[in-house]
Amino acid sequence: IERAIYAYLVGLNTLAEGAGAAGLAALLSDPERFGGRKIGLVLTGGNIDPRLVSAITVRALEREDRVVTFRITLRDRPGELGRLADIIGREGANILEVSHQRLLLDVPIMRATTDITIETRDGGHAARIRQVLETEGMVVTRLAPLHHPTS
């Protein structure tokens, strides 16, 4: 249902509530069942909470690798966080959120761990950014959303 709501939103610029998108959800969950047939879908209801629409949209962008979160371990030295931001900016991505930890026991000594969420163009762009960060000596782990198709 979540995928169907997003498909209506992006494909038709139409907002559907969960029940209204149920028909499309059935089609998306088992496309072979409907193969070779002409299918008519009834779209009803736009009574959906804006926060739910926001969550659905962000989760869809994560599935499309257009919003990506990396956990990066870097040296705990002045300027390293700025260097990280500079690399991401040079590579054409936008930073959405940063969480920087250096005092927790599970962070290696003289290192800092940064979880950084960025907007990318697609999976290839995200992979290129990861490669550049690793080339710069940073340890990078992708924090994949639940049920990510490539995780």
Can you describe what's shown?
The chain has five helices and four strands, in the order αααβαββαβ. It has a four-stranded antiparallel beta sheet. α1 crosses α2 and α1 crosses α3. It is elongated and about 60 Å long.
Rounded average pLDDT = 89
Total beta strands: 4
Overall 3D form = elongated
Helices and strands, in order, run as: HHHEHEEHE
Main sheet: strands, sense, barrel: 4 strands, antiparallel
Radius of gyration: 20 Å
Amino- and carboxy-terminal Cα gap: 21 Å
List low-confidence stretches: 147-151
Assign the structural class, choosing from mainly alpha, mainly beta, alpha/beta, alpha+beta, or little secondary structure: alpha+beta
How much of the sequence lies in strands comes to: 15-25%
Helix content: 25-40%
Tell me the number of helical segments per DSSP (H or I, 4 or more residues long).
Answer: 5
Strand order of the largest sheet: 2-3-1-4
